[in-house]
Amino acid sequence: MKDVNVGICGLGTVGGGTFNVLERNAKLIAGRAGCRIQVSRVASRRHRSDIQLGNIPFSTDIYDVVQDPDVDVVVELIGGYDAARELVLAAIAEGKHVVTANKAMIAVHGNEIFEAAKEKNVIVAYEAGVAGGIPIIKSIREGLAANRVNWLAGIINGTGNYILTEMRAGRDFEEVLKEAQDLGYAEADPTFDVEGVDAAHKLTIMASAAFGVPLQFERAYTEGIGSLTPYDISHAEALGYRVKHLGIARAREEGLELRVHPTLVPVNHMIAKVDGVLNAIVVDGDAVGQTMYTGPGAGDEATASAVIADIIDVARSVSCGSNQRVPYLGFDTDSIVDHQILPMDEIRSAYYLRIQAYDRPGVLAKVASILSEHGINIESIMQKESELHDGRIPVIILTHTVQERQINQAIAQMESLPDVEGKVVRIRAENFV
Ligand SMILES: NC(=O)c1ccc[n+]([C@@H]2O[C@H](COP(=O)([O-])OP(=O)(O)OC[C@H]3O[C@@H](n4cnc5c(N)ncnc54)[C@H](OP(=O)(O)O)[C@@H]3O)[C@@H](O)[C@H]2O)c1
């Protein structure tokens, strides 16, 4: 059986991990793939003295990999949007299969890339782009292929989960973010992590594979964790909920909800127990019910595990002669339906509200009457007498599920009451039923 030659573009964290695991487990991987998988060329901006490339040709020009006729699979690990897109499209044009860990590129340029790949009958595999080492794309596209997916929800950014876990102990967002940077969990520029952009990239990809819709990153709603306080996190706990930064995709008759935001989840739900830098995704399928996938969402060898699983898949397909064993998004191209992504006003959720009210008679009644006017039922309400301060007192409310438009209208009305000070804090809540 023919050897499969791999060309690695980008010898950074994931590139280095991929090279090392491919070398270390070469025999085992060959046994699983049914052929030898060897790195035949590497390109990256700089040489790394800690990686023993031996006789493998190295260059600083990533296009040397694309143009090498001996390379069967181009492994794109340079990151970013545009340079990666151009590299991948060039590889496809050369008839090469592509394996990538780049969620940003797939979420934004995936439709174009898959179309080009289909035309050339080559594989583009991207497991490592979503939740690092967790095989969630394989689970959705293959393991759960019998199911109509009702919804999926995931902790898909380890940095954000680490920060929220630490904030439960009463620590401030800024302090924990700095610690996450010092520990190497968060990037020097942590914007994508804490504002939910990175999670929205991954959610976009999972949702397309789960629901058979085109990739629509630009329509995903994104809200970060920067304005959360230990105060609200502890009040949520008192109500029996934990705050997690979730990516949620839910199929509704009217369209698809696609949203990333801080979310209250019941403390007894399995996803509430996923702490630190770990990732986890719950998928609710009509046949199987709820399944959860958890593990490391980042790291050199954890991510390499997913990159190499994709390389093995390509190698198996190449050896057995069929490149399209699994379609790019798990759905035949003709079955991908442009189901509309719902505007945030139309999503349905429960809500945690914290109102800073003046301690006057009748305030609670006014707030309750506004909620009732908008058809919003209250699950629980707490007035924190012990926290009366300067004549103001926090009122904490958990609502039943309603449409976001209703809650927005009610919040605007509450904020205009002379008895209410400042903005109402609002965090969405999910009961996962
Ligand atoms: N790190 C993780 O745990 C993780 C997990 C899941 C997915 N990913 C994804 O995997 C990809 C790679 O991430 P990473 O953490 O390995 O990044 P990284 O450590 O920054 O590695 C990227 C490497 O590519 C090189 N490079 C970038 N642009 C290049 C170009 N135009 N020509 C030649 N070399 C170029 C970089 O060189 P310089 O260093 O000189 O710039 C660097 O060596 C990204 O898409 C990322 O989102 C990462």
SSE inventory with pairings:
Blueprint: E1 4-9, H1 13-24, H2 26-33, E2 37-43, E3 58-59, H3 63-67, E4 73-76, H4 82-93, E5 97-100, H5 103-120, E6 124-125, H6 136-143, E7 149-155, H7 158-167, H8 173-182, H9 191-194, H10 197-211, E8 221-222, H11 230-238, E9 241-252, E10 255-266, E11 278-285, E12 289-296, H12 300-320, E13 348-358, H13 363-373, E14 378-383, E15 392-399, E16 402-403, H14 404-415, E17 420-429
What is shown here, in short?
The protein is α/β, with parallel strands linked by helices and 433 residues long. The chain is built from 14 helices and 17 strands. The chain folds into 3 domains: 166 residues, Rossmann fold (3-Layer(aba) Sandwich), CATH 3.40.50.720; 154 residues, Dihydrodipicolinate Reductase, domain 2, CATH 3.30.360; 84 residues, Alpha-Beta Plaits.
Q: How would you sum up this structure, described in words?
A:
The protein is α/β, with parallel strands linked by helices and 433 residues long. It has 3 domains: 4-133 and 300-335, Rossmann fold (3-Layer(aba) Sandwich); 143-296, 2-Layer Sandwich (Dihydrodipicolinate Reductase, domain 2); 346-429, 2-Layer Sandwich (Alpha-Beta Plaits). Helices cover 36% and strands 26% of the residues. It contains 14 helices and 17 strands. The protein has helices at residues 13-24, 26-33, 63-67, 82-93, 103-120, 136-143, 158-167, 173-182, 191-194, 197-211, 230-238, 300-320, 363-373, 404-415, and strands at 4-9, 37-43, 58-59, 73-76, 97-100, 124-125, 149-155, 221-222, 241-252, 255-266, 278-285, 289-296, 348-358, 378-383, 392-399, 402-403, 420-429. The strands form 2 sheets. Strands 7, 8, 9, 10, 11, 12, 13, 14, 15, 16 and 17 form an 11-stranded mixed sheet that branches. A hairpin with a 2-residue loop joins strand 9 and strand 10 (255-266). Helix 1 (13-24) crosses helix 12, helix 5 runs parallel beside helix 10 and helix 13 (363-373) packs antiparallel against helix 14. The longest helix is centred in the C-terminal third of the chain and has 21 residues, at 300-320. The protein is elongated, with a radius of gyration of 24 Å. The mean pLDDT is 95. The chain binds NADP nicotinamide-adenine-dinucleotide phosphate. Residues 10-15, 44-46, 62, 77-79, 83, 101-103, 128-129, 132, 298-299, 303 line the site of NADP nicotinamide-adenine-dinucleotide phosphate.
